[in-house]
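Hey, resending since the last one bounced:
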Amino acid sequence: MSTLNKTVYLFIDAANSWEVQKAKGAFFDYQKVVSMIKKNFNKSNVEVFYYTAYPKEGTRNFDVRRKHNFFTFLKKALGFNIRKKELKRIRAVDENGEYIKEKGDMDVEITIDAVHHLEKYSTAIFFTGDSDFLSLIRYIRNKGKKVFIFSSRNNVSNELRTGSDGYFDCLNLEEDIWGHKIKHRKK
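The structure tokens again:
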């Protein structure tokens, strides 16, 4: 079997996956996630890309360095490819006055990596429920690749569920892919 047939590329949309984790009340244990992918998809190689936007230092009432420590753990301990950028802060106005809106879409970065590495994998897995990825999924499938979506019923678009080769609800998986419980910060 060629390396291509043994390889799956996993693209994790952190913002979208956060909604799944909140619904479960627990964080993903990414070591368990990778093990589950290897086992269930009969693949020996899993290349993981993790996409996230983070708040600018000083914009939160908590220390954002913990987020960067987590990104370092994913990269150094687990070998993930980390794609991150600072949240863009945009001044906006509505009927209540002026406020700051933050945006951190990583859709373009995910798309570029999925297309750029297309010849290196036979299967692509997306941890997202965002319907914006439907065109990308169609493109990848038209190139003869398998595409699977992991999300949850509260967070996945119908287009992704039906437009891929398979959909898995993370909240209903038999495998344990969960880490420690989510604890909310004290206000």
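The domain at 4-51+103-181 is CATH 3.40.50.1010 (Rossmann fold).

Sorry for the duplicate.
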